[in-house]
Amino acid sequence: MTVPFDPAAEFDSQVDTLVKLGYPALAGRSEDDFRDLVAPLRAAAVTGASGLPAPTEGRVPFLLVITRELVSVEERVALTTLAGKRKTGIVDRHYAEGDLGRFDPIKELDVPAGPAYLLFDVDRGADLCNLAPSAAMEIITGRDRLPISIDEGLALVTLYPAALATNRCFSLVGSRCGDKRVPALWISQGAPKLGWCWWGNPHTWLGSASARPERIGPGVSYPQA
């Protein structure tokens, strides 16, 4: 018997995962303060995920995204692992010191201000493997979707480690810094790695992740149909 997907239970599970990983301490908050901070997003998660299927390795109904306003990119990378593994993620050495701070979400994402928000119907983009990010971007927007950012990619791998797998890695086209580099999450020596590839270069093992356009912050109701 298939158990119906329960968005409320899923939201609570995501919060529990972040708490167990130590996000409250990294944010300089108590566990209760952290839970209170994200609690206003619960109702929007339930509404926004209505009708969406249960999570799979390649696609999830929603993500609770923590931004660098609350916890740094480097700290969040270090808390990622592959499914069933213990080795923690790293930032690729080709990012110069201070480089990650230059990669902002592209304006089209219209990311809500603040330390946390919701992202819906997230797909790791396996069908876009072997396409350059430039070509993948055209396909993604043609589907009325948008690429995801570094913060969103880290949320996906943190909350769903199985999303990052051999030949199922993904670019984060939603974060750019004004040059031709595109951040990406892939596997290196048995752990996640946040690196970058070129805007015009395809890789057989690298897709481009995407999601619904809407990003919902605290105090904002999910738009009704």
Supply database-style keywords.
single chain, 225 residues, alpha+beta, five-stranded mixed sheet, 26% helix, 22% strand, globular
Would you give an account of this structure?
This protein has one domain. Strand 8 and strand 9 form a beta hairpin. Helix 1 (7-21) packs across helix 4. The mean pLDDT is 95. The protein has helices at 7-21, 23-26, 31-38, 42-48, 73-77, 133-142, 150-159, and strands spanning 59-66, 90-91, 104-105, 116-123, 146-147, 169-171, 175-176, 181-188, 191-198, 206-208, 210-211, 215-216. The radius of gyration is 16 Å and the shape is globular. It is of the alpha+beta class and 225 residues long. The protein has a five-stranded mixed beta sheet. A three-stranded antiparallel beta sheet has the order 1-4-12. A two-stranded antiparallel sheet has the order 3-7.
Provide a quick synopsis of the model:
With 225 residues, the chain is an alpha+beta fold.
Q: Mean pLDDT across all residues, rounded?
A: 95
- Percentage of helical residues? 25-40%
- The structural domain count equals 1
| Low-confidence segments | none
Number of helices: 7
**Looking at the structure, what is the overall shape?**
globular
Rg, rounded, reads 16 Å
Give the distance, in angstroms, between the N- and C-terminal Cα atoms: 30 Å
What profile does the largest beta sheet have?
Answer: 5 strands, mixed
Strand content: 15-25%
Report the order of strands and helices. HHHHEHEEEHEHEEEEEEE
Number of strands: 12
